[in-house]
């Protein structure tokens, strides 16, 4: 029997970047999976919890459990939302359904590498690409090794990008530095957030990147806004679009 995968699409992707959701769906369907999209899904509750209103986010969390408890796996193109489900749904009353959902919710790249064991992709993207490693995915989900650690390096997203025909992955000077988005941090500390974002963009430009990619649309939205305001020669694409073989 085909494995049943529930596609979880975060709020900002649903509202602003539906193309990322479509690319994620098409990519997953290439691996002989039965992909479903619960129509009643809403926010996972992360924005409320991050703003200090964790108790107010629990209704959204309960709805998430009801929507996704019947799937073998839940997959989302967003590390921050996945981390919230895995680490913050412990506030819900313990049940078999809560445990199952928390243990079987995966970020897209994590799912492709760790669960499906993908070792090749039918995709072409003939551009120089810089990968922005978002904080929740890297330090929360351990999608890649933190550069400050004296340990063997690895990166699940880069492992997948290296399977894409024609793609040249550029190495950044600061491979895992925060872009400054940080959810409500970008609102409460706007000037600091903008400065951090500009630094990340400059690192990509200095390495000759033509396209900036990453696994969290929230970070990409922040960086793309800064890029467009300055009309810089750098495109932004979510990693799901690249892995699905979509051009700029």
What does this protein structure show overall?
This protein has 248 residues and is an alpha/beta fold. The protein has 2 domains: 4-115, Rossmann fold; 128-243, Rossmann fold, CATH 3.40.50. It has helices at 11-16, 18-29, 46-50, 58-68, 79-88, 96-103, 108-115, 135-140, 156-161, 185-188, 190-206, 217-230, 239-243, and strands spanning 4-7, 34-36, 73-76, 105-107, 128-132, 168-170, 211-214, 235-238. The strands form 2 sheets. Strands 2-1-3-4 form a 4-stranded parallel beta sheet, sandwiched between helices. Strands 6-5-7-8 form a 4-stranded parallel beta sheet. Helix 11 crosses helix 12. The longest helix is centred in the C-terminal third of the chain and has 17 residues, at 190-206. The radius of gyration is 18 Å and the shape is globular.
């Amino acid at each position: 029997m085909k494995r049943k995968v529930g596609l979880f699409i975060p709020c900002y992707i649903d509202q602003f970047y539906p193309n990322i959701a479509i690319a994620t769906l098409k990519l997953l369907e290439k691996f002989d999976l039965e992909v479903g999209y619960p129509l009643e899904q809403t926010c996972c509750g992360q924005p409320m919890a991050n703003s200090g209103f964790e108790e107010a986010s629990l209704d959204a969390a309960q709805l998430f459990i009801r929507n996704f408890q019947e799937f073998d796996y839940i997959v989302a193109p967003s590390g921050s939302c996945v981390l919230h489900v895995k680490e913050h749904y412990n506030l819900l009353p313990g049940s078999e359904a809560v445990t199952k959902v928390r243990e079987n919710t995966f970020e897209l790249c994590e799912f492709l590498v760790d669960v499906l064991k993908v070792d090749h992709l039918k995709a072409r993207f003939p551009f120089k690409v810089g990968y922005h490693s978002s904080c929740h995915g890297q330090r929360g989900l351990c999608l890649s090794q933190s550069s400050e650690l004296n340990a063997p390096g690895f990166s699940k997203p880069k492992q997948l990008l290296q399977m894409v025909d024609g793609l040249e992955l550029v190495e950044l000077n600061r491979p895992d530095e925060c872009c400054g988005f940080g959810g409500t941090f970008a609102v409460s500390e706007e000037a600091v957030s903008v400065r951090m974002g500009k630094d990340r963009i400059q690192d990509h430009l200095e390495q000759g990147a033509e396209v900036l990619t990453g696994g969290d649309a929230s970070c990409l939205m922040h960086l793309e806004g800064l890029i467009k305001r300055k009309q810089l020669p750098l495109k932004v694409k979510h990693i799901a679009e690249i892995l699905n073989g979509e051009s700029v």
